[in-house]
Specification:
With about 270 residues, the chain is of the alpha/beta class. Helix content is about 35%, strand content about 25%. It is built from 7 helices and 10 strands. Helix 2 runs parallel beside helix 4. It binds adenosine-5'-triphosphate (ATP) and magnesium ion (MG).
């Protein structure tokens, strides 16, 4: 997939990523008097414009962490700062792509993408042009008039991505966004995201179970422990950019993938 989202030219400071500081974050869920400790003392520094991948076993608190950063959930202790400001709830500069994509069922794909700009009273023609370009980019040009129930699972993920991107967030919180895609579509979405990120330098925290995906995309790959989630290791990925299909065969990439797989296996023991 080539081309980047409209309005994504570099030099627009409003589009640059924001820095995230996570300090001493803990979260326990209570249900019928029973406690589930989801997160234990998470500390993480994400520089503005960085691409950080989170890898960890199922149930270790990855989604919980993203929900707290997004401001949808409150931590028990600790704090999240965005550009030095404490997060107390959702904010327009942060956009979350959920593990199960949430689209408005009564709106077409195109109207779902246009929801944000319309709610903000953005000029209609420009927003519609941008929505159409984004839908082409994510391969849904022919499905703009379909309703969510008429899309496949992977298509819904791509529609949700277009709906997020049109709002030009400074932080994208992505929860296994490509897990439901077939291998070819997934590779093309990874390339699309990398291309977009290289232009916009949106800060991205990307949760995945896929070691290859994390190694290909991230500046840094953090491996989490089983519940309660802690960050066990953070590996800086120094592979040259731009990265793409050719990167997967590079000897350094093969070594990194093996190392990350071993770290994940150790974390899961
Ligand atoms: N709303 C909730 N109420 C009670 N327990 C919850 C709630 N949300 C999450 N949990 C629990 O917190 C733990 C972490 O859940 P979370 O969804 O964050 O894991 P995850 O790492 O995203 O897993 P997966 O990789 O399977 O998506 C799990 O044990 C889960 O059951
Ligand atoms: Mg999850």
């Amino acid at each position: 997939m080539s081309g980047v989202a409209p309005g994504s030219g570099s030099g627009d400071s409003a589009q640059r990523g924001a820095a995230i500081t996570i300090a001493g974050l803990t979260k326990t869920f209570w249900r019928g008097g029973e406690a589930t400790e989801a997160l234990a003392a998470i500390d993480l520094e994400v520089p503005a414009g960085a691409f950080v991948c989170l890898l960890g076993p199922s149930g270790c608190g990855k989604s919980t962490l993203l929900h707290i950063i997004a401001g949808f959930l409150k931590a028990d202790r600790g704090e999240v700062l965005v550009d030095g400001r404490r997060v107390t709830g959702p904010g327009a500069e942060r956009c979350m792509l959920f593990q199960s994509p949430t689209l408005f069922p009564w709106l077409t794909t195109r109207d779902n993408v246009l929801f944000g700009p319309r709610a903000q009273g953005k000029p209609r023609a420009a927003a519609e042009r941008e929505a159409d370009q984004l839908l082409e980019l994510v391969g849904l040009g022919a499905f703009r008039r379909h309703y969510p129930h008429q899309l496949s699972g992977g298509m819904r993920h791509r529609a949700a991505l277009a709906r997020a991107l049109i709002n030009r967030p400074r932080i994208l919180l992505m929860d296994e966004p490509f897990a439901a895609l077939d291998a070819i579509t997934r590779a093309s979405m990874q390339e699309f995201l990398l291309e977009l990120w290289e232009r916009q330098r949106t800060t991205i925290i990307f949760v995945t179970h896929d070691v290859e995906e994390a190694s290909l995309l991230g500046d840094r790959v953090c491996v989490m422990s089983p519940r309660p989630g802690r960050i066990l290791s953070a590996t800086e990925v120094r592979l040259p950019r731009p990265r793409g299909e050719a990167t997967r065969d590079a000897p350094d990439f093969v070594v990194l993938r093996r190392q990350m797989r071993a770290e994940l296996a150790r974390a899961c023991q």
